[in-house]
Write a structure and sequence with these properties.
- This protein has 15 helices and 11 strands.
- The strands form 2 sheets. Strands 1-7-6-5-4-2-3 form a 7-stranded mixed β-sheet, sandwiched between helices. Strands 8-9-11-10 form a 4-stranded antiparallel β-sheet, with helices on one face.
- Helices cover 44% and strands 12% of the residues.
- The protein has 2 domains: 160 residues, Aspartate Aminotransferase, domain 1 (Alpha-Beta Complex), CATH 3.90.1150.170; 245 residues, Aspartate Aminotransferase, domain 2 (3-Layer(aba) Sandwich).
Length: 473
């Protein structure tokens, strides 16, 4: 492809992208395809000679688009959103054009210094303490793994990195409602899933601090060494809020690392009135939240903060001769702040988003989404055939259909979900709460409006009534 051809096709793609953003609601949110349908349309062998971009783009539209789930539709209310916005896309385009590999300061000084700067902005936007220092990771899963690895090395005096595990009997603590990435992290860190303690939760699905402390004491009694607690500001199923200050006090008392997983809900701390969720966060050791979930920055972009970056750097720093530079003692080489050596210029798109939307614009969108969560919870409470299954703290609503004449409500509610999703007008998922199947709507799309939530609620009611009539006739 020549430069002129690139210019031509780039303009065509931008036009298509802008049209897609305008018309995304016209697509079925969930594609009507079966496993293998897309694979059947693809060429068996790679082309021996290069093909025209016209043909490639035509195949994209005809073969790939029919099998896409449209995360950017305001009617996508399944998982926590993977949001984007116009300035974020433009930042991503420039980042891809520059092609910078930002592993150390010298490989792109502006990228390193912008990352430091924009993470200070994020800290201020979220009201986090000045004692926190930030770095951009790819995902919260990676950031949490970094927290566990750092805790592992701190409490082994950095000996496991050197010689591997010997007789250490470390234990990690989290709630029954925590994200599955914690289970994966303890495996990768070599601590082992059997050393992960799932602490019971209260009626609001928040970790019980009394149960945490008693579990820690029981492990100490049996010769284990507790090293880390992972708490949550916004669990995945219900966005439950763990008691951060009380957990921090326990961690200080027993000298444990405290990592706060606020992957989704942490962005709501941009609203001063929501900062009650993070009371005591200044006592924690690390904190993670995802601008790529609820801050309109396209995937991937995770903000990870630590109180003591020395332990983090000592855990990951390896400096072979070919990576040494004359300014290493003066700068932050972010390759030492996480798992990968290679790093994308993610700070650019985050900088674009914050500048173009502004802090007040971000707050307005967050408040609108929270208000819609409250609105839907009120509608559910008012309906005599639906019930809430968890408190609605933000904009995730867990509820179910109820009818004493239907013997298996779990099966019936699953039918409601599958029937609605099959229409292509809405996509949402489920969770299990106290053993009960729960319909779960999570909405935080950049362009979400009241009408989208109203339509979703109306559609769920309609399909529930139709299924009920089929069941009882």
């Amino acid at each position: 492809m020549t430069n002129e051809e690139f210019r031509k096709y780039a303009h065509e793609l931008v036009d298509w992208m802008a049209d897609y953003m305008d018309n995304v609601e016209d697509y079925p949110v969930l594609p009507d395809v079966k496993p293998g349908d897309i694979l059947k349309t693809l060429a068996d062998k790679p082309p021996q000679e290069g093909e025209s971009f016209d043909k490639i783009f035509k195949d994209f539209k005809e073969q790939i688009m029919p099998g896409m789930t449209h995360w950017e539709s305001p009617n996508f209310m399944a998982y926590f959103p993977a949001n984007k916005s116009y300035p974020s896309i433009l930042g991503e385009m420039l980042m891809s054009t520059l092609g910078a590999q930002c592993m150390i300061w010298l490989t792109s000084p502006a990228a390193a210094e912008l990352e430091e700067h924009v993470m200070n902005w994020m800290r201020d936007i979220l009201g986090l303490p000045d004692s926190f220092t930030g770095v951009i990771q790819d995902t919260a899963s990676t950031a949490t793994l970094c927290a566990l690895l750092t805790a592992r090395e701190k409490y082994s005096n950095f000996k496991i990195n050197e010689r591997g595990f010997e007789n250490e009997r470390f234990t990690i603590y989290t709630s029954e409602q925590i994200h599955s990435s914690i289970d994966k992290a303890v495996k990768i860190a070599g601590i082992g899933e059997s050393s992960l303690r799932k602490v019971p939760v209260d009626d609001a699905f928040a970790m019980r601090a009394d149960a945490l402390e008693s579990t820690i004491l029981e492990d100490i009694k049996h010769g284990y060494q507790p090293i880390c607690v992972v708490s949550a500001i916004g669990t995945t199923s219900t966005t439950a809020i763990d008691p951060i200050k009380t957990i921090s006090d326990i961690c200080i008392k027993y000298k444990l690392w405290h990592h706060v997983d606020a992957a989704y809900a942490g962005i709501a701390l941009a609203l001063p009135e929501m900062r009650w969720m993070a009371e005591g966060v200044q006592l924690a050791d690390s904190f993670v939240t995802n601008p790529h979930k609820w801050m309109f920055t396209n995937f991937d972009c995770t903000a990870y903060f630590v109180k003591d970056p020395v332990n983090l750097v000592n855990t990951f720093s390896i400096t072979p001769d070919y990576l040494k530079t004359s300014v290493d003692h003066e700068v932050k080489n972010y390759r030492d702040w996480g798992v990968p050596l290679g790093r994308r210029f993610r700070a650019l798109k985050l900088w674009f988003v914050i500048r173009e939307i502004g802090v007040n614009g971000i707050r307005e969108k967050l408040q609108k989404h929270i208000d819609l969560g409250k609105w839907l919870s009120i509608q559910v409470n008012k309906h005599n055939k639906f019930e809430l299954l968890a408190p609605v703290v933000l904009n995730t609503v867990c509820f179910r259909y109820i009818n004493s004449e239907i013997p298996d409500l779990d099966v019936f509610n699953e039918k409601i979900m599958n029937t609605v999703n099959k229409t292509g007008q809405l996509f949402f998922t489920q969770t299990k709460l106290k053993g009960r199947f729960s319909l779960r709507l999570a909405f935080g799309n950049t362009n979400l409006e009241q009408k989208h939530v109203e339509n979703a609620w109306k559609l769920i009611q309609e399909k529930a009534l139709e299924l009920e009539q089929d069941y009882t006739t």
